Amino acid sequence: MNGQRSVTAEDVARLAGVSRSAVSRAFTNGASISSETRDKVMAAADRLGYRVNYLARSLTLQRTELVALVVSDMDHSFRARIVDLLSRGLVKAGYRPFLLPWSDGDDAGRLIDMMLHYNVSGAIMTSDTPPGEIAAHCARHGVPLVLVNKAPVDAHAPRVLHDVEAAGRLAAEALFEAGCRRVAYAGPRRPSYTIDARRAAFLRHAAELGMRCRFEANGARPNYAGGVEAAAEFLPRAGEVDGVHCGNDFLALGFLDRIRSDGLRVPADLSVVGCDNIAEAAWTSYDLTTVTQDAEAVVSACLAALIELVEGEEEPAPTTVIPVRLVRRGSTSHRA
Amino acid sequence: MNGQRSVTAEDVARLAGVSRSAVSRAFTNGASISSETRDKVMAAADRLGYRVNYLARSLTLQRTELVALVVSDMDHSFRARIVDLLSRGLVKAGYRPFLLPWSDGDDAGRLIDMMLHYNVSGAIMTSDTPPGEIAAHCARHGVPLVLVNKAPVDAHAPRVLHDVEAAGRLAAEALFEAGCRRVAYAGPRRPSYTIDARRAAFLRHAAELGMRCRFEANGARPNYAGGVEAAAEFLPRAGEVDGVHCGNDFLALGFLDRIRSDGLRVPADLSVVGCDNIAEAAWTSYDLTTVTQDAEAVVSACLAALIELVEGEEEPAPTTVIPVRLVRRGSTSHRA
DNA sequence: ATGAAAGCGCTAACAC
DNA sequence: GTGTTAGCGCTTTCAT
C-alpha cells in the first residue's frame, strides 16, 4: 500500500538539468542562486511533487523543528484549550508539535527516551502530574524545557504560571465584598501545585480580611466528581459559613450541583467562587464567579520562553507570572 | 544553550571496542549478534547515554513512526477526548502522534506539505471541518489516511463513525417513549456530516412513529452558544411541541439553559434528547438523556484501520460503524 | 557473528 | 552562481 518511492532532490536536479545543490539552494532561504535556476528547479519540483525531506535535512542541520508537548489530563477542558493554543502557536512559529501523552504511573525514562530518539529541539510540560524528574533528564541531555503552571523543579527550566497569589487574594476579596465573613475552602486531596498555592494565598488573605476559614472540605480530584465529594463532606457543616472558595472551576461546578440538590441556594445562602474561568462556568445553570486565567497569555509567554531558549542568546526569565482578574457572576451576592 | 553534541553509534562502538554495525545490531530486534557483544554494547551505550536517532534510522528504513493527527475544534470536549485516546493508542502501538491543528480557512496544501516533509507513515483526520480535498492529496501521495466521523470523500480512505442512523432512531424512540407526539429539532446552521445525517434519521423515524416534526430551530454552531440561539428561535413556538432532539449535547445544554430561564420545565413541559454523551450531560443541572457515542470504541477501530493500512496486507473495511445506545436521564419523562 | 563499505536524502564548505 | 565533495547517524548487504 505504501509503495510509491518518494521523489528526491536528485530526481528534481535531473529533470531541471542542474546539480543537487542547486535544488537544495532553491529551497533554502537566502541561499545564493539565480532566480533563473530557481525557477527551473521550482518548475521541476512542482511537476514531480517534490517536498524537501525535513528528516534528512535535520540530520545535516543538527536540529529539528520538533517540540515535545507533554500533556496529561486532556479531559480537563482548560488543558485541551492550552494544548490547542500551544500547537497552533508552535506551527505558526515554524515548529512541529509532537504529542507525548502522560498518564499517572508512566515511566519517565520512556518519555525522555522518545524526546531524544526524535531529537526534539525543545519540550513543553503542562499540568502538574508528570514528575519533576523529567525536567532533570531534559537538563542533563540539553533539551530546552518550559513548564506551564507547574511546580518549580530542581533543574533549571523557565516556568510560566498564572498569578496564584493574586488569584487566592481575588477569591478572598470577592467573598468579602459579597458580604461573607465566615468562609470555607473546598479542594482536591490530590496535590496540585497551582491549586495548593492558591489555597494558601486564599487562606492568608481571608484571614487578613478578618474572615476566618472555618474548615475545609475535600474531594479526591480537582474535577466535577471531586466537587460533588467535597460538597458531601461540606454539607453537614454548611450552616457555619456563608462563602466558599473552590480549588478550580470544575470542582466548583460539582460542588454547586451537589449543594443545590440539598436545597442550598446560591448566592442567597452561600456565595461560591472558583478559579480558571472555564467555558462551563459562564453557562446559565452555574453563572459562577471565578478568577480568570488567561490561556492565550499563558501560551504566548510559554512560546516566547521556549523560542528564546532554543534560538535566542539570552536566558529567558526564570519565571513569568501571568496576571489574573476576577469575573463577577451570579454565584456571589452583590452588595450595594 | 543547545550545546552538547549528541552521542552517536560511533562513540558507543569505540568505547565498546566493536564496530558501528555491532551497535546497530544490538539495537535492532532479531539481528544476529552474540549476547556477549550485545552486553558490551549496552554497557557502553548506558554509560554514554546513547539513544538511537530515529530520524537517521528512518532515512535508511524508508519509513517513520510518525502519524499526523489532523484536528480542529479541540475546545469541543468530545474531540479532546478522542485526541487524547488516539495519541495514547498511537504511542502504545509504537507510533508517534504529530499534531496538525486545523483552523477554518487554513490552506490544505500547507497541511499536506507538512505530512510529506516529515514523511508521516499515516494520518488520522477527525472532525468534519478540514476539507475532503486533503484526502485526495493523501491518496495521491500514498499517505494512508483514516477518517473519524467524517463525510465520505472521493478518495479511497477508510472511515470510522458511530451509527448515525441508529442514533437518530434512538433519539426519536426516546421521545416517543417519553410520551411525546409533536416534536421539533434543534441544530446548527453550520453543516456537519454526522449531525446532518443524524437529523435525517431522526426526522424519518419520528415520522414513522407518527410524531410529525413541527419545525426546526437553528443556532450558528453546534456548541453551547448555538443551543442558546436555537432556543431563542424555538421559544415563540414552544407550545406546539412536547419533545425536542438537539444536534449534539453541547447544543442541547445551551438549549436547556435558555428555555429554562424562560420558565419552561424539563421534562414536564418538554422532553429533550441530545447526542454524544459528553461528561457535562451527566451533570446534575442538566441530567440530559442522550445517545452515547463510545469514544474508546471509535478510537480503537480507527487505530486498527490505520495499522492495517500501514502494516497489513489486506485492505481494512471501507467503513466501520460503531454501535450507539441510549442513556436515559431526567430530561425525558418516564412513562409508566 | 562480525567488520567494511555503500547508501538513505540532504546541506555546506570548497573550488571554480 | 554553480557543481563537486564530504558528511550528518544510521542500517544493511556483502565478505569473511
From TrEMBL, chains A, B:
Domain HTH cro/C1-type, first and last residues per copy: 4-55
The HTH lacI-type domain, residue ranges: 7-61
Keyword Transcription regulation in record: yes
Pfam family, any one: LacI
InterPro entries: Cro/C1-type_HTH, HTH_LacI, LacI/GalR-like_sensor, Lambda_DNA-bd_dom_sf, Peripla_BP_I
Signal peptide: none
Keywords: DNA-binding, Repressor, Transcription, Transcription regulation
MF-aspect GO terms: DNA-binding transcription factor activity; transcription cis-regulatory region binding
Record-given protein name: DNA-binding LacI/PurR family transcriptional regulator
Lineage: Bacteria, Pseudomonadati, Pseudomonadota, Alphaproteobacteria, Rhodobacterales
